[in-house]
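Predict the 3D structure for this chain.
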Amino acid sequence: MGAVIRRGAEDLLAAARVLADGVLFERALDVDAAGSVPEHNLDLLRDAGFYGLWTPHDVGGCGLDELERLPILEALAGGCLTTAFTWAQHGGGSANAARTPPGSVLHERWARALATGERRSGVAFAHVLRPEPCLFAERAGDGWLLRGVAPFVTGWGHIDAVLVAAHDADRLVWMLIPANEARTLTSRRLRLAAVDSSVTVEMHFDSHAVGDDHVVEVIGYGEWLALYRLGLRTNGALMLGVASRALTLLGPSPLDAEVDAAREALHAADVDEMAECRAQVGYVGIRATSALVSAVGGRAITVAHHAQRLAREALFLLVQGQTAEIRAGHLRRLGATESKH
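Done. Predicted structure below.
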């Protein structure tokens, strides 16, 4: 069981940098090839208190705000993106469990256990941004039946709960359910070009019954989308971590200032500026990792070198958490469409 560690943002950031540089980075190539992120890596994050980043003190969390979390996410991603990405999926389930009413089934079962890292969670909602819904919730008695597919769920086999979103007409039903396979809930592993050891699966729901006591909320799609846009900053921190690691290996270059400027803009962005700032972060991340590959030369494309790993991870992050607005920004910067500026 994870201990509750009460630390401030500065102490947590210092601990993240030590862990990233001294342990995670040294193991990152092995983790990349392992097929599954080692439990030991996730336990290190738990023991350092990082599973509480998204929750308040009253449930055993760290009580940090978004801007305090970002440098920690960046540091850990620069150590080992596979480990950091698997761990970062925990935030959605943990934060939602913490805001359920005290005394409720969800709160009592999950809030403290997730905040302390005693239990781990993942998320299943990337699909709700697709033009055509693929996972549906249908009202049935005192609960819901889930039918369809959640195409990208990370950490399968490492997580105890999963935060699922399903369409009910123009609403989204959000529920926190046990991450256990059953006759009506099965998974199919996806093979990824990067971060494959995160064990990302496609979840299939065949009239899977979920009781009302597992429902976090039912919210209009438009209302949820507005809230989602506020959270786009977080994914950018992961790319900044990968880019910064590449530049550390590359040595001083003009790209250092570009990454710093992209970070500053992302941290300061309001919701209407977020997509463009994310696109810029993605663009400098691709350039930073490509520069490292070019500088290293032929050795960079051997599996024993970090350059190829970081370049693949940057490509992964280019599409992870991507919206139509962010995609358009990437394409403009890459010269695939005409610039509107």
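The longest helix spans residues 9-34.
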